[in-house]
Amino acid sequence: MLRWIAGAAALVILALAGVRIWGLLDGIAGSNAKVLCSAVFVSGRDLTEARAHSIRIDPPTSRVRLDPDARVVEVSMAGLIGRRALFAGDQGCVALPRGRDTLTFTPVPVTSALPPAETLDWPMGDRLPDGPIAEIDGDRLEAAIEAAFARPQDHTAAFVVVHRGRLVAERYAPGIGPDTQLESWSMGKSVTATLVGLLIQEGALRLHQPAPVD
Q1: H helices within the chain, ranges in order?
Q2: How many CB atoms lie within 10 A of CB 45?
């Protein structure tokens, strides 16, 4: 009897572990599909380079399929778990729910209301002030830049130094430039929350206003 109970308990534990592992692999596949889709179709990066530098968890059993015509990236795990991400124009890339091949919304083009970047001062535009930069140790600044790119395993894509509101140094990895859109990770959430807070303060949004999502 005890052996039967122990065997049944072991089977339950294995089943629960299997469900947890399945969910973990499903999450990894969905996240990787989204990151690679954004890297290729939003940032214009090479798939191989993006997979090497932007994917943190890439199991040996992971397979990536790119469809440049449909603008879809599919990531599968062990040939069993597959997740897809689709480029949605100005809304970027979207990880599709399991079992769906289409978006749940209609993409809307976004047109900037700002003047051309070359006519605006940085950081709103690309125009930089002339004249020397005071109180900057050029040698130490160069050493800091070199250190940022010294270890290939750090996957540094961009390094920008701002001093007293002025852009004083910048360097980018091969294939990356000042206009390349890169993953912002949690920084994007912080910026978005700050902007939403400002809009609430200005009365353009209400704190408990529902999002315009069907």
Answers
A1: 2-37, 47-54, 138-148, 186-201
A2: 22
Q: Are 171 and 148 in contact (CB under 8 A)?
A: yes
Q: Could you tell me if 24 and 62 are in contact, meaning their C-beta atoms sit under 8 angstroms apart? A: no
* Helix, strand, or coil (residue 28): helix
Torsion sign across C-alpha atoms 128, 138, 53, 192 = negative
Cα 47–144–160 angle (5° rounding)? 55
pLDDT in tens, 95-115: 998 888 889 889 999 998 889
d(CA 18, CA 25): 10
> Cα(3)–Cα(110) distance, rounded to whole angstroms?
65
- Residues 124-150: pLDDT tens digits? 899 988 877 777 888 999 999 999 999
Q: Are 91 and 73 in contact (CB under 8 A)?
A: no
Which residue ranges make up each domain of the chain?
2-95, 117-183
The residues of the chain scoring below 50 in pLDDT are 8-9, 12, 14-16, 18-19
What pTM does this model have? 0.76
